[in-house]
């Protein structure tokens, strides 16, 4: 779970709710017609813009904004090094026993291709093709959220115009002008709230997540090809660390040091006699 997304939403809602509750009647901020125009209009425009199959797939993409990968990049590199060590000692076929327990489906598929004897060119082509389509799916999901973010304020303004037209027909009763104006402005408020607290930040987070995932998958491709080529595990680690920031490289070193320490603490069994 990505705690920053949750914290951001909570802070935003708390601040907006606090502003609404301070010094006034909170009931004036709730209007069913205003909500229907803003939210319903945004959904309607999105349905017109995109295919239903694209919209149905957005939920899977949006989930990326609220979840972290099972293995971060530093842990992936440590996993690749362990795989390389075993492959050099026991051969690539020995990896088949553990391929389904790696914890990353993309890495598992790539290693299965290597174990099955696929040529390096084929492995690279298959995996890079998957990266391209993953990036395209993420870009489509992000574009749908961005479109909704642009529609919400527009329908908010549309609702305000509708409310103003109704209010102007009641100018003969001054007591209705103030409440009518308040209700008319609520749709603009709802549209801005949907767009700038939820939709735009969510689209931005999806863009960041997509770039991170593509980088992770490129790291995996480089690692798998290096393992298949029989490169030294230490050289593989140094090569893959070039994908990371200085902080990420330190994390790789820490994981390696913990592993070495754990292996040194493990007693070596000796054969009887």
From TrEMBL:
<keyword id="KW-0406">Ion transport</keyword>
<feature type="transmembrane region" description="Helical">
    <location>
        <begin position="5"/>
        <end position="22"/>
    </location>
</feature>
<dbReference type="Pfam" id="PF20560">
    <property type="entry name" value="MotA_N"/>
</dbReference>
<dbReference type="GO" id="GO:1902600">
    <property type="term" value="P:proton transmembrane transport"/>
</dbReference>
<dbReference type="InterPro" id="IPR000540">
    <property type="entry name" value="Flag_MotA_CS"/>
</dbReference>
<keyword id="KW-0282">Flagellum</keyword>
<comment type="similarity">
    <text>Belongs to the MotA family.</text>
</comment>
<keyword id="KW-0966">Cell projection</keyword>
<feature type="domain" description="MotA/TolQ/ExbB proton channel">
    <location>
        <begin position="100"/>
        <end position="217"/>
    </location>
</feature>
<dbReference type="GO" id="GO:0006935">
    <property type="term" value="P:chemotaxis"/>
</dbReference>
<feature type="transmembrane region" description="Helical">
    <location>
        <begin position="177"/>
        <end position="199"/>
    </location>
</feature>
<dbReference type="GO" id="GO:0005886">
    <property type="term" value="C:plasma membrane"/>
</dbReference>
<dbReference type="InterPro" id="IPR046786">
    <property type="entry name" value="MotA_N"/>
</dbReference>
<keyword id="KW-1003">Cell membrane</keyword>
<keyword id="KW-0812">Transmembrane</keyword>
<feature type="transmembrane region" description="Helical">
    <location>
        <begin position="147"/>
        <end position="165"/>
    </location>
</feature>
<keyword id="KW-0969">Cilium</keyword>
<keyword id="KW-1133">Transmembrane helix</keyword>
<keyword id="KW-0283">Flagellar rotation</keyword>
<feature type="domain" description="Motility protein A N-terminal">
    <location>
        <begin position="6"/>
        <end position="91"/>
    </location>
</feature>
<protein>
    <submittedName>
        <fullName>Flagellar motor protein MotP</fullName>
    </submittedName>
</protein>
<feature type="transmembrane region" description="Helical">
    <location>
        <begin position="28"/>
        <end position="50"/>
    </location>
</feature>
<dbReference type="Pfam" id="PF01618">
    <property type="entry name" value="MotA_ExbB"/>
</dbReference>
<keyword id="KW-0472">Membrane</keyword>
<dbReference type="InterPro" id="IPR047055">
    <property type="entry name" value="MotA-like"/>
</dbReference>
<dbReference type="GO" id="GO:0071978">
    <property type="term" value="P:bacterial-type flagellum-dependent swarming motility"/>
</dbReference>
<dbReference type="InterPro" id="IPR002898">
    <property type="entry name" value="MotA_ExbB_proton_chnl"/>
</dbReference>
<keyword id="KW-0813">Transport</keyword>
<keyword id="KW-0375">Hydrogen ion transport</keyword>
<keyword id="KW-0145">Chemotaxis</keyword>
């Amino acid at each position: 779970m990505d705690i920053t997304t949750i914290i951001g939403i909570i802070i935003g809602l708390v601040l907006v709710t606090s502003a609404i509750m301070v010094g006034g009647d909170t009931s004036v901020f709730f209007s069913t017609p205003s909500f229907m125009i803003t939210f319903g209009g945004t959904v309607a425009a999105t349905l017109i813009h995109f295919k239903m199959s694209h919209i149905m797939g957005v939920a899977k993409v949006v989930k990326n904004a609220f979840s972290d990968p099972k293995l971060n990049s530093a842990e992936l590199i440590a996993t690749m090094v362990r795989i390389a060590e075993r492959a050099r000692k026991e051969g690539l076929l020995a990896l088949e026993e553990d391929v389904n327990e790696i914890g990353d489906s993309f890495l598992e598929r790539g290693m299965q291709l290597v174990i099955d004897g696929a040529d390096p060119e084929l492995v690279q082509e298959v995996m890079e093709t998957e990266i391209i389509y993953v990036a395209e799916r993420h870009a489509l999901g992000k574009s749908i959220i961005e479109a909704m973010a642009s529609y919400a304020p527009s329908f908010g303004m549309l609702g305000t115009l509708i409310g103003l037209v109704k209010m102007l027909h009641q100018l003969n009763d001054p007591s209705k002008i103030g409440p009518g104006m308040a209700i008319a402005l609520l749709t603009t408020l709802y549209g801005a709230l949907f767009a700038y607290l939820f939709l735009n930040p969510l689209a931005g987070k999806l863009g960041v997540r997509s770039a991170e995932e593509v980088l992770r998958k490129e790291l995996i491709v480089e690692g798998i090809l290096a393992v298949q080529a029989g490169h030294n595990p230490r050289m593989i680690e140094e090569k893959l660390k070039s994908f990371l920031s200085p902080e990420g490289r330190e994390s790789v070193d820490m994981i390696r040091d913990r592993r070495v320490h754990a292996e040194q603490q493990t007693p070596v069994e000796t054969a009887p006699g």
